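pasting glucan endo-1,3-beta-D-glucosidase for the record, 493 residues
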Amino acid sequence: MLLGIWKRGIVLLAFLLSHALGSFVGINIGTDISNLPSASTIVSILQAQKIKHVRLFEADHQLLTALANTGIEVMVGVPNDQLLQIGESRSAAADWINKNIAAYLPGTNITYIAVGNEVLTSIPNAAVVLVPAMQFIHSALLAANLDFQIHVSSPHSVNVIPQSFPPSTATFNSTLNSIMYQYLQFLKNTGSSFMLNAQPYYSYTKANGIYPIEYALFRSLNPDNQILDPNTLFSYTNMFDTMVDAVYFAIQALNFSGIPIIVTQSGWPSSGGDNETDANVDNALAYNTNLIHHVLNNSGTPSQPKMPINTYIYELFNEDLRAGPLSEKNWGVFFPNGTAVYSLNFESVVDGGTISSGLSGVFCVAKLSANSQNLKQGLDWACGPGGANCSSIQPGQPCYESDDLSAVASYAYNDYYHRTQASGGTCNFDNTAVITTNDPSHGLCIFAGSSTTNSSASKGPASDSSPSVGVERLQAFSSGYLVLVLLLLFFCW
Ligand SMILES: *[C@@H]1O[C@H](CO)[C@@H](O)[C@H](O)[C@H]1NC(C)=O
Ligand SMILES: *[C@@H]1O[C@H](CO)[C@@H](O)[C@H](O)[C@H]1NC(C)=O
Ligand SMILES: *[C@@H]1O[C@H](CO)[C@@H](O)[C@H](O)[C@H]1NC(C)=O
Ligand SMILES: *[C@@H]1O[C@H](CO)[C@@H](O)[C@H](O)[C@H]1NC(C)=O
Ligand SMILES: *[C@@H]1O[C@H](CO)[C@@H](O)[C@H](O)[C@H]1NC(C)=O
Ligand SMILES: *[C@@H]1O[C@H](CO)[C@@H](O)[C@H](O)[C@H]1NC(C)=O
Ligand SMILES: *[C@@H]1O[C@H](CO)[C@@H](O)[C@H](O)[C@H]1NC(C)=O
Ligand SMILES: *[C@@H]1O[C@H](CO)[C@@H](O)[C@H](O)[C@H]1NC(C)=O
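structre below
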């Protein structure tokens, strides 16, 4: 069924609506933005992208109004600074529900309330009021007869688990045990879900090179090199699954089971400061694309293969008013003016090796600043091991330009990128390439992804030439791998 849909090449973000098999991908809408678009503009962006699930960090009245009758499901947050009040007073909780939730029903389809955000790790002093706040909110819903429609939970950082590898031995920080126990008991009693903010970006960057970036970006690892949990023998192909599985095992260690996990934040920044080189468009596009595939594939994690992991991408807009390093302001898929930072709006999968007809309007070209020696290497790699179809840049062919290395490299880079992007290939080439929306096609030289009707010339079967994993990445991986395994073993024992 899934494959059938993909074969028909439906635009990927269209999947952001509830998926046939049950799992969904939604998006966070943070509003620390100096030029915040109007609520109605935000809703039209969501609708244009076919996004069906959103998370609001607070009960923004204009957004809640604008989301009415849109078919979009809404998770509403209780901000951390309102937690104390609600956790200490049953009537404050009831007030909050009346003003911020009940007032918008049934027009606005509110289905979850997220009480606080990363309370246990970011404001440990307020930890004791977390579960009482959840209980008061739930009682208020019960009194209003809304408890079946709206579930209550609270998102946690992965830092509630001090040591998440191997996942099978993960436990919650023991100083949090009694609160965690109450929290899980509450979820169990009310049929709610554990909320997890899973950000491989932070774990990857904090680990300072211990992990290969492929592991963080869901790029295929060579099967021989997958990362094994020595106790369960589950093999992990990506960091996201490791984080989620660590939570399942930590829950199990407190003797709870059957509690689903919702990932309330996951994403990758598209730009950052000089010392944040992994925050770039290429990685952000790869992470979010692969995350969407992973979640909608509905295959769960190694330990819970049948449990869907509904996930909210972090986030819709870049938030220029957020504090912290430059990357903190650049997690958005869109600029606040509505222009896409990068295009997540493409058809999904390389099917049977043919070029994805998606990524329409997005091109991978040589950087102007790249030097010719590096471009030559990139070109050779793309046309050789990379499997790009370079026939159009041969002498006598439409894209042949004997004196413009940048132009021919661009053709090869773009062809490689369009063939492999859906399976994790990226536009990087040792940092000599960049994504653009300016179509470099000219005359009869048509680039993959061009809207000119002649794009059929650049399609066609490529069964002999679409590696799902680029050699550049495998090499990088195998050198880091031994170190990784040794370190992991060191940590386990
Ligand atoms: C709200 O969302 C829930 C959960 O997906 C769905 O069952 C329900 O039909 C929706 N309600 C409306 C009014 O759209
Ligand atoms: C566990 O949590 C406590 C309280 O928040 C914190 O002080 C401590 O550093 C944490 N321990 C670990 C190993 O993360
Ligand atoms: C979980 O259950 C096992 C077996 O009943 C018991 O030995 C263990 O102490 C329990 N652990 C916790 C944290 O309650
Ligand atoms: C990056 O540089 C900024 C400003 O120079 C500094 O505040 C920050 O801590 C640095 N981040 C890392 C990860 O080194
Ligand atoms: C879905 O996941 C399974 C298990 O990880 C994998 O074998 C399969 O190829 C994936 N399917 C798609 C369409 O990505
Ligand atoms: C939107 O903002 C971005 C970043 O500031 C800018 O690059 C882009 O040109 C803007 N788009 C429009 C249509 O103004
Ligand atoms: C498309 O291809 C035809 C021949 O196949 C050519 O005559 C025409 O100029 C091409 N159009 C463009 C926009 O390149
Ligand atoms: C390579 O591209 C050329 C022209 O664009 C096309 O005729 C040929 O069929 C392609 N080859 C493969 C293997 O896709």
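The chain has two domains: 2-329, 363-467.
Residues 1-21, 345-357, 454-493 have pLDDT under 50 and may be disordered.
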